[in-house]
Amino acid sequence: METLTLRDTPTVQGPAQAMQVAAPKVVVRYERRDISANISPSLLEISYTDFLEGQSDTIELVLEDADRRWQRAWYPQHGDLLEVQLGYEAGALLPCGQFEIDEVELDGPPDVVRIKALAAGVTRALRTRNDRAYENITLAELANTVARRNGMQVSGQIAPVRLERVTQVNETDLAFLKRVAAEYGYSFSVRHGKICLFARAELRQSKPELVIERGDVSSYRFRDKIQGVVKAATVSYHDGRQQQVRRQRVEASADSGARQSADELKLNLRAENAQQAKLKADAALAHSQDDQTSASLTLFGNVRLMAGVNVQLRGFGRMDGKYGIAQSLHRITRSDGYSSQIDLKRVRADAAGAGS
Question: Is the four-CA dihedral 36, 39, 42, 44 of positive or negative sign?
């Protein structure tokens, strides 16, 4: 595990041998043609938001347009492809991926153009509401079925969970998969043209890749709560073979490190068998634990601060510990250079304990 300090930010020697932060670097390809040199003089800001789950990654470019070329000959077309890399001149660049232009804004005066793009692969089909029913299918097969319908592939290891019936009612494919994945303890996202499903338990178990000290942070905000942090979760389900209602109860592990309220979470979720009920109870209980302590940090830009990465925080007293990055925002501006803002959730020991 490495310690992230200001020394990790690439530097160059100044005139008096003083250490200076290296210049940020941005590479932009438009329809696979490198336009970095063309847009550099007018680029005011570029920001890349990387989400762990639930939303597609985004890119936004803010350009001054005094000669109005972006409003005329250079006006970007919806659906055109952007490829972006950012970082420092002296270091490795972060490959943000491919994006499709989704929205253009014109502001003024002075004239400014904002180009917003979504991760490539998030097509209109994925955002169209549908009504469908799926029967006798596994969670992995469900994900692959939706992916193939949208010309995509699935990334990630998915446990063999069988679903007798699952219904999509007036939901987009994105919202539908997010809901079903979350019920069974998976994070869902679309990135680099793929539908990604990752077991949250595995993400929590990953070792921290970086240590962030208090002195590395320009601003911070922590939130520590107990409301909603339950001690147990119960899912009721109908046993078709025995023709009776059964309950699956999961208690928080004694060594999870979370302070629980006296509340219990009773879920009115559909479950077809004991396996499904336990998975749903585990997922709900773990989500409750994850939400107890959250943080938002702003610091010098670092290309390794990506959603899904675990870090160790030091120098924040009772808030020290292992955290997972839920969202990262990488921003380069003409005035302030390269910065990263990360939203984190404290990682507890396995939330689930004994089931009954």
Answer: negative
The domain tally of the chain equals 3
- 354 by Cβ neighbours in 10 Å (0-12 / 13-18 / 19+) ranks as exposed
Does the global pTM surpass 0.85? no
Between CA 29 and CA 56 the distance in angstroms is: 20
- Residue 339 to residues 64, 86, 306: CA-CA distances in angstroms? 21, 11, 13
Q: Which CATH number characterizes residue 155's domain?
A: 3.55.50.10
Q: Determine the pLDDT at residue 14.
A: 40
| Domain coverage including residue 181 | 129-203
Same domain, 139 and 87: no
| CB 103 within 8 Å of CB 96 | no
Residue 356 is predicted with a pLDDT of 47
Cis ω before 110 (30° cut-off from 0): yes
Statement to judge: residues 62 and 141 lie in one domain: no
Does residue 33 form part of some domain?
Answer: yes
Q: Which of 88, 119, 150 is the last residue of a domain?
A: 119
Do 33 and 51 share a domain, yes or no?
A: yes
CATH of the domain at 90: 2.40.10
165 — pLDDT class (breaks 50, 70, 90): confident
Write out the DSSP string of 73-127. Answer: TTPPPTT-EEEEEEEETTSPEEEEEEEEEEEEEEETTTTEEEEEEEETT--TTTT
pLDDT tens per residue, range 106-160: 998 999 999 999 887 666 666 778 899 999 899 899 999 988 888 888 888 888 8
Cα 38 from Cα 67, distance rounded (Å)? 14
